[in-house]
Amino acid sequence: MSEHAHDNHTGPIKTPKQLWWTAFFAFVVPVFLIIGLVFYVTKADKPQAGAVNPELATAQRIQKVGTVELRDANRPLAAGADVYKAQCAACHEAGLVGAPKHGDKAAWAPRIAQGYDTLVNSALKGKGAMGAQGGGAFRDIEIARAVAYLANQGGANFTEPAAPAAESK
């Protein structure tokens, strides 16, 4: 009985030849597979995924973050009606997303009661669904002129702001 007790505790490898093949397949073959994969991946330059033109892809990655836009500081100020047509009419003509319609005295009365400065501040900084108009294509004084024009069409009697006096040195 003692002779058979040791048979239960032996492993699957019974000969040195089996040990050699097990070591070969367990360690040597994976090492050669990894070396082969590394060689395959690094053997040639490959463009980025989706980049057909590597020069264009490089140019897009290193492009400037911001741009500088030069404007003529001496250009004459636009009239309120012109600024309204260019910047405000898209929403105020149709009354989109709660914008008071051009010439609708009932819709403009509570806004006019808040005062001209409040209306200009709302136009420059944005209010409700209306985005900020300040810092765009028009100067702040031109936006203020458009506010005066639009409010006057709705029953106000605001004076369109004049161009600021030239600063002397």
UniProtKB/TrEMBL annotation:
Keywords: Electron transport, Heme, Iron, Membrane, Metal-binding, Transmembrane, Transmembrane helix, Transport. It holds the Pfam family Cytochrome_CBB3. This is Cytochrome c-555. The chain crosses the membrane at residues 20-41. Residues 75-154 form the Cytochrome c domain. Signal peptide: none annotated. It comes from the Bacteria. GO terms for molecular function: electron transfer activity; heme binding; iron ion binding. The keyword Iron applies. InterPro entries: Cyt_c-like_dom, Cyt_c-like_dom_sf, Cyt_CIE.
